[in-house]
Amino acid sequence: MKLGPFPIWPDVAASEAGGVDFVTLVVLAICSFFALGVLFCMLFFLFAYREGRPADRTAPPLIHHKLEIGWIVLPTLLSLGMFWVGARQYYRLYQLPESTDVTVDVVGKQWMWIMHYPNGAKEINRLHVPLGKRVTLRMISQDVIHSFSVPDFRVKHDVLPGRYTYLWFEPTKAGPFHLFCAEFCGTSHAAMGGWIEVMSPEDYQRWLDGQQTEDPVQRGKLLFQQHGCQGCHEGSVAAPRLQRMKVADEEYLRRSIVEPNADIVPGFQSIMPSYAGRLSEEQILDLIAYLRSRP
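^ thats the sequence. predicted structure below, dont judge the formating
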């Protein structure tokens, strides 16, 4: 929505954007109604009781039960109604769907967004997604708190160091859409932005197939060998054998790499060093991809 050349309302370009707008307009309408009501009363009393007006200035009754009940019950019901409308939409936004069509890993760092696709393709400050498909982002920060925000999709989620957060959306309109970092993250915070390119599923697949890729599993395997992990984990003597990791949660695998003493397998001693600060978040993602690929 635009007023001349100036946008006054973002495009509705995702499946849940309309629901967010509905919540916003409901709250805005209720607040505006009461704000205008208070303003009207102020202006009315200002003129009705100004000096020289023949108004009744006798003291009103001290107790007015109906009025007191009204100004307690009505705001309570309105507040509960706004809470229900907002909580329902919040749940829809932040509850991950049972199935997703595309999962992309996102690493935020001062001052850029790095996107990792399942086939090993990588982009900086640009994300390509298919139209009409559910997209899930698994996000983590390399340094400080960031916030991944796409106004046209009505989505915004903090990206935290040390833990994964998740965000999903389903684009309903093709075209480029601006993404921002919506959390102050340092001197170049304002420059930490990019674009989401929504294209038809066919065009998306052609684009994805045409990208230069490096298999994250192979990168992870190389890291596994370079850091000598097989020396302890292959023999099941000093450390547990890494099998059937596909069922393991990504958060658990990451914690096992950066906080190895947090979850110690019974029967083994705590001898593994922490790799926090020694591996970047991108390298940890590659290691997790390799661990989950092992039989």
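The first strand starts at residue 2 and ends at 3.
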